[in-house]
Amino acid sequence: GQAWQAGPGQILVLAPASxxxxxxxxxxxxxxxxxxxxxxxxxRLNAWVVDAYPGKGADxxxxxxxxxxxxxxxxxxxxxxxAAGHYLTSVSDAGELAQxxxxxxxxxxxxxxxxxGGVVLxxxxxxxxxxxxxxxxxKLNQNLVLGLVSxxxxxxxxxxxxxxxxxxxxxxxQG
Length: 175
Hints:
Elements: E1 2-7, E2 10-14, H1 17-33, H2 35-39, E3 43-54, H3 67-77, E4 80-92, E5 97-103, E6 106-115, E7 118-127, E8 130-138, E9 143-151, E10 160-171
Antiparallel strand pairs: 1-2, 3-4, 3-10, 5-6, 6-7, 7-8, 9-10
């Protein structure tokens, strides 16, 4: 038979039907015994910068993907409504330092390192006067709500808003 790498974490094997079952069994054993084969795939970091305003109001429809995470945040904080700032996405190899800079003065630098049962995200987000950094452990496909208090970005009215950084890490072949 012959084998080709069909994409990240994928292999294509061309062999007679009589060998298919044996080949599939061998590949499963190799993957089960080699954790690096399953966790070294490229990873996609999806990040939403969201402003949480106190009080009731309509949420932006573009935030539906992360609405359950925002609802949990509002349950802890009290009535809030949410406005989308930016959506960032980046693909990097496991353990690689990556940076996304969507606008001048704004950057997200991060490293995702696989661990037993999940990943560790080491991040540093900057947007002009705001800064948020840390290290968290999570599972793939889980939304993390990270946040900090900042002044109202529109400069109107007293008080402050919560600027949230919502992050989800998935395999690179997922959106």
